[in-house]
Amino acid sequence: MSKQHEPRVLGHADEADGIEEYDNPLPDWWLGLFWLTIIWGGFYAVHYHFWGNRSQEGEFIAEMQAADERWPEQAQAAIQFAMSDAAVTSGEAVYQQNCFPCHGVNLEGGIGPAFDDDEWIHGGTADDVLRIIREGVLTKGMVAWEGILSPEQINDVTAYIVARNMDATGRTLDSYLASSGMDAEPAEADTVTVAPASDSQGSQSEPED
Amino acid sequence: MEPNSVAADSSRSAPAVTPNYDDGIVKMFFTATVIWGIVGMLVGVIIALQLAWWPANLNLPWTSFGRLRPLHTNAVIFAFAGNVCFTGIYHSMQRLLKTRMFNDTLSRIHFWGWQLIIVSAAVSLPMGLTQGKEYAELIWPIDVAVTLIWVAFAINFFGTIAIRKVQHLYVAIWFYMSFVLTIAVLHIVNSLAIPATLLRSYPIYAGLTDGLVQWWYGHNAVGFFLTTPFLGLMYYYLPRAAERPVFSYRLSIIHFWALVFLYIWAGPHHLLYSALPDWAQTLGMVFSVILIAPSWGGMLNGLLTLKGAWDRVRTDPILKMMVVAVSFYGMSTFEGPMMSIRAVNGLAHYTNWVIGHVHSGALGWVGMMSFGMLYWLAPRLFNRPLAYPKWVSHHFWLATIGIVIYTVAMWAAGLMEGLQWRAINDAGQLVNPIFLDITARLQPFMLLRLLGGGMYLVGAIMMGINFWQTVNGPERPEEADALPQAA
């Protein structure tokens, strides 16, 4: 149809408060777009659900498999606890960035337990602290920091907590290392069963299942 | 200039010729619109300030973000936009159907009932009384009141259509009809609940069903509260203001039916990557994408109606507002379908991009269309020239620049959040493991949003002052056919 001629008005004006309407055809590109989206919609739905057999769950599994291939699960190297001034300094920075919201700026506790006293709910050796930071205590809302913090950072923040606890309680460094189960700890951190810690602080080891 | 349309324009040259029309109710809704508009936008600016600077929540439960946010959304959607629709519908439908409203008492019940509902929302939401469903927060007694008042409105509306003095129903009326009917269905179905006490109730749906019904409602609140009635208003007020014939009757028919048919299916795009079955997610996504053309049909019919009137668009701030409104409508109805594509949604969902999208529609389309309509209507309705015609232009620029700042800030914030949440380094670890770090980085964007929203609010307050002075100013002199407009 010719688009040159002056469009015809429909003559509805006296029934539309003076508003006239042209009898213009639908713009071709508009109609084309409409058909295109309809055809694409049908094609997409059939492709997603039948030809491609795609699904939300499948997408998740594929993504996880790709990640597993790219980053194969490695045996988690045990962290040898090492105390040093440098570790305490760097650990303080890590603590004040990540830990203080729950455990307090001065380790006084809050949402999470305090570190400035002699009470250790999940074990009070340096190794216990390392383990708790790595694995978290998910039932209590403590996040597993392994993978978020580097092994060095986990060691350093442990050193900071131990150093501050020593200041607060007057214990010696050896008393935190006393019942260290580090050597006995298996390389695989996922299924670690903590050796019953029978240190003098009366810490109970958390039975993990 | 179309001499014919001016000649047929009875309401314009001499309102006294048509004393039959109930303009009192239009003035009431007009006044409520301006007041609630400013209130709703003010609450929006307050919560924007809270997001940029938390002490603004005053550390009080009643003024905390979680309670004021639903107050803001309810105020701007149901109080401001609702009253805009009622103003425009009561004004235009009487003229389009050449008859007074069906029943003046019903009109007043509708007005006072609706304002009472708004006041009860403004009291109950800060008290923390809520059903916890987005845009459907109001507790069950208020829900019942909304239903009753809506039925009163519907009887009055369809009664007026029944007693009309013309045969042809103009396109604006179709859009109004879809608004009245669909909102009734949406509100009633989504609000079904078993009352436990006067203030508490339990929805009859559970879990995923509740979620799906909620977003069927939530998305179509956008579709049938903020889109179709405003398209109706556009179809009446834009050609009236431009004094041009509507571009295509055929396009109106096709895009109307396509829009109302497709919109109602699009809700599941709010639940992509959720427990919703894949096929329902696909349905929501596909129908959203197919909605582009029907939505753009409205934009085209608006913009192409202005063909031949572009010289006036350059100088008339009312037409400028309508052009910006229709353009933002076209922009956000393209953005929405893109965001409902699975892959894009995976990035955009839960970020500030969504807030930006909603506000480009709300501030750009709904707000600008409303302002254009109100400025066009005010001198005619109150029979007085605008007190400060130049302010209309200032309002236009404040609002337009404000929207641009707002939406650009939210796009940037949303993309930043979406990308930083999912960023993984070479070791397969999250680059930003601390969620709070990313949140803290949003502050500059929150400040920009506050600036944009603040400019928009200032424009609305200027409009309120302008109307106040207009109503209290001298009457328009006789024979002043050409209304003074801002140059």
Care to describe what's here?
The complex is a heterodimer of chains A (209) and B (487). Chain A is mostly helical and 209 residues long. Chain A folds into 2 domains: 13-70, no CATH class; 73-209, Orthogonal Bundle (Cytochrome Bc1 Complex, Chain D, domain 2), CATH 1.10.760. Chain A has helices at residues 28-51, 56-70, 85-98, 100-103, 126-135, 151-169, 173-177. The longest helix of chain A is centred in the N-terminal third of the chain and has 24 residues, at 28-51. Mean pLDDT of chain A is 83; it is low at 180-209. Chain B has a single domain (18-232, 340-471), classed as Cytochrome C Oxidase, Chain A, CATH 1.20.210.10. Chain B is built from 19 helices and 2 strands. Chain B has a two-stranded antiparallel sheet with strand order 1-2. The radius of gyration of chain B is 22 Å and the shape is globular.
